[in-house]
Structures are given as structure tokens and as C-alpha cells.
DNA sequence: CTTTCATATGAGCAACTGTTCATATATATA
DNA sequence: TATATATATGAACAGTTGCTCATATGAAAG
């Protein structure tokens, strides 16, 4: 962030200096906030959300997911790589087939919180 | 979705027909899943996450937020409109100034769940 | 070794996103 | 009314994203 802290753009900055200080202390690091946004970005796509919901129920191979969602194998595989990179899913090879499943219960918790907000 | 349900692309689809049926039942509606992804999309940007974290601490006017984050008033205002449209923040006018605050505690809960996953 | 099947991956493209810049709106004050 | 301040907003542009298509990789079977 540029050093503009002492160049107020409105009179309220100094009126609320205590609040500004408190916020600055409470604000997580730039890196943490970036990672957090990156995480939510992964959840911010219909296809990926669908894949995660499918894996809620059972581990599943790539082509079954594609079949279920009516999408191409390539599209699903690309998105599974995104989910894998974010450590939201894990996989298990069995012969020619690769089975994907949810990495842990955080995924359920996050989706659940979002669902609460959407369906209320 | 195209009607490809009876054109298996791999042998596992029919081996796991029961699972496919169960998943199809458990899967929320297309519209709900779309809304869910749209919600997470809003959280999927550093600037917006920062704004929300700032509002965690206190209601704040546009220019104070811009000041705090070292960004232009315009950029912050644009993002506040996005957050407003998603009903994640509310605002209160006081003379020339507009104060923004979190709309409800869902926002905290969702960010908190994400933070758990990021900081573990 | 060759073929087949399931999956992964790179290039290319259209659609979307976040910022900047210029300007408009709204409120208060002289 | 004219001016100043705080915020909102539209256009434009660069950067990103998700899909398709073609092709590559990996594993099992002939």
C-alpha cells in the first residue's frame, strides 16, 4: 500500500483516527487476505460448486461427473485440476480410472455457510 | 443439461447407477447452485475481502476505507456497489458522507470458515 | 507392441472483471 | 446562486477465466 496515511481525502479520517488504528491492527496480513480471496474464487464458479456438491455424496470418477453434469470430460478435468490445486479435492487412481473426493470437511462447512445465506 | 444420461462415456456410470441417482436427488437446484457460486464470487476478490474485514471492526465512510486500503475512492465505491447488490453491506447517509457496515452476521461466518481453511 | 479407454493438458477464443479516468449526483455552506 | 466536498457511475482497457478442440499421457487388454 502506498504511504498516503497522512494525506486525508475527507475530514472523517482524522475524526475516526482511533477506529482507523484499531482496524489496522485487526486486519489480517495482505498475504492472508489474498489467500482467502483466492480460496473463495475457487468456490465462485457454478461448475466447481456442482462438482463439490456431487462429491458431497460420493467419490466419483471424472467421466461420471461429466455425465451427471452434462458437460465434457475436458471441462470437468480442467476444473478438477483447479480444485486439486486448491486442495479442496483429493484423488485415488484405480486402473485407468481416477476417483475424486472431497479433501476434508472444511469444504462442506464453507459451502454450508454460503448455502445458509443463499437459501434464507 | 443435454440428454446424455443414457450414453455412458465410461463403464463406471452404470456400475454406480445407484450413486448417480442418489447424487441427482441430493443436488440442489441449478438456480440455487448458481446463486451460491455468485455469492462466493463476491468474496473472491482481495479488495472486497479487505473492505469486509474493515467493516468487521466498524462502520466506515467510503473515503476512510479508500484511505485505509491505499486505493482510490472510485475503486472502493465500485466495489461497495457490488457488495451492496449482493446484500453483504448496508449503508447510512449522514450529510455528504455515506457510512457502510456489514449487512448481517452471515458475512462474518462465511469469512470465518474460509479463514479457518486458509490459516490452518 | 498396438489398441483402447480414462484422464490430463496446452492453445486459442469469447466473455467477464477490476481498475482508472472523467464526469455526474447529492448535500452542505457561503 | 455558486462553490466545495463526498460519493456514484459510465466508458474504456488490460488482465483473467472457462470452455472447446486437438492432442498427449497412463494403464489395461489383446
Features:
three-stranded antiparallel β-sheet, 7 helices, homodimer, 120 residues, mainly alpha, DNA-binding
State the order of secondary-structure elements of chain A, H for helix, E for strand.
HHHHEHHEEH
Strand content of chain A: 5-15%
Q: How much is the radius of gyration of chain A in Å?
A: 21 Å
Order of strands across the biggest sheet of chain A? Answer: 1-3-2
The gross shape of chain A turns out to be elongated
Structural features, described:
The structure is a homodimer of 120-residue chains. With 120 residues, chain A is mostly helical. Helices cover 63% and strands 12% of the residues of chain A. Chain A is built from seven helices and three strands. Chain A has a three-stranded antiparallel β-sheet with strand order 1-3-2. Mean pLDDT of chain A is 88; it is low at 1-8. At the A-B interface, helix 2, helix 3, helix 4, strand 1 and helix 5 of A face helix 2, helix 3, helix 4, strand 1 and helix 5 of B. Chain A binds a DNA duplex (30 and 30 nucleotides) through residues 9-12, 45, 47, 61-63, 71-75, 77-82, 93, 95-98.
